[in-house]
Request: fold
Amino acid sequence: MTAIGLRPATSADSEYCFQLHKAAMGAYITAVWGWDEQTQRDLHTGAFNPDRWQIITTGGTKVGILHVECRPTEIYLARIELHPDHQGRGIGSRLIRTLLHQARQQGQDLTLDVLAVNQRAQTLYRRLGLHEISHHGENDIKIRMSTKPPQPGPIHRS
Reply:
């Protein structure tokens, strides 16, 4: 099994993170909003925070990014993106299992949001034990998923 490493992002990683986002999420973003390079660069500039983001590595090679927020009642997986060349190798599953273990140890839920068009990610999250909690965003483009058991009745849409 390949060792997975995490290191803090630095300001020098900004362009790598943008290009990774484009490679990993570009098709989904295009499907929902259309890809506008300048808009996406502006959004990246506003979101990129080297104090909170981590670079995922395998064998010393950068393969993805991770952003986790430890909140009072939950661990929120704000972003996990792997370059398409490294997807399907168990890297994301191993990292998420680590977060699931951490959440259980702390008596918290692991929660995340995923684009409704990203069926591949939803399948992974369900396989790892997360449940659909709600749909939100304009035209319900996002799905909130959590280890919290779903409430009986229809999925809440906001």
Observations:
- The helical segments are 14-32, 37-47, 91-105, 119-127.
- The two ends are 42 Å apart (CA to CA).
